[in-house]
Amino acid sequence: MNNLDIYNQLIHYVSAENVKQNEPLSSYTWTKTGGPADFLVFPTTFEGISGTFQVAKQNNIPVTVLGNGSNLIIKDGGIRGIVMILTKLDQVRLEGEKIVAQSGAAIIDVSRIALQHELTGLEFACGIPGTVGGALFMNAGAYGGEVKDVLESAVVLTNDGKLVGLSKDDFDFGYRSSAFAKKKMCVLEATFRCQKGNPEQIKEKMDELTYLRESKQPLEYPSCGSVFKRPEGHFAGKLIQDSGLQGTQIGGVQVSTKHAGFMVNIDQGTASDYIALIQHVQKTVKEKFGVQLETEVKIIGEDL
């Protein structure tokens, strides 16, 4: 099967304007790095997602599912097969005190919708830059709250193509981990259970968390968000800072001078620059403090 045949199969399920070939992924990641995808698909329906998986199975090529590329480094060689970005699957609806959001919706937008309807529980998400699907994958959290605290149910496509509804007993949440990631499920929709709250208090909390994020994080540069998981008994940023690594630069990527837990693309950095800097930081912190930093950021794709 040649690429034209695969392309024609894909546009049967997803409109031609939402299928691209040999598309650089640097346009779709927060680091502004990443090589090309053989096929890049933007489904707008659940049927489009299911159909894309069918095409991949029929042609024996892999599928990589992405959200908005916020906590992600894609290597400079890009990704083979089909890359599916779900940001056009972004509908959100209210069901009483529950919010039902499709996987491509921004979790920040979901938290704002909760505020508009005087619902509390999602304030912690007002500064998390990822999509709903990404938030479920990572059990995203900030400032004392996590997805596991509010997620009631989810609809997923399993890796064998079945549409399945999941509830709390199925999520297997841990620190920055979940059954969705472990079992390579494609999240289609999530239902969050909130409670009625005082809108002034909800807004005050969200304003406070937004201020903390904007004042402490280097939002003025492209970055992949928090690079490392929090090591037990330590804070990654403090270990990096105490190792004298703030400002360290490889290629165009620098350990942020504003927050040592972040790495920023200040001068046309590449994914290889990011990976080299991550490895340098891990090695230095291990030598100085005996702590092995584990990456929170996901690194995927192929080397050049």
Automatic annotation (TrEMBL):
Known cofactor(s): FAD
The FAD-binding PCMH-type domain, residue ranges: 32-197
Annotated Pfam families: FAD_binding_4, MurB_C
Designated name of the protein: UDP-N-acetylenolpyruvoylglucosamine reductase
Superkingdom of the source species: Bacteria
Species: Peribacillus faecalis
PANTHER family, alphabetized: UDP-N-ACETYLENOLPYRUVOYLGLUCOSAMINE REDUCTASE
E.C. code: 1.3.1.98
Keyword list, A-Z: Cell cycle, Cell division, Cell shape, Cell wall biogenesis/degradation, Cytoplasm, FAD, Flavoprotein, NADP, Oxidoreductase, Peptidoglycan synthesis
Catalytic activity line of the entry: UDP-N-acetyl-alpha-D-muramate + NADP(+) = UDP-N-acetyl-3-O-(1-carboxyvinyl)-alpha-D-glucosamine + NADPH + H(+)
Entry annotated with the keyword Cell division: yes
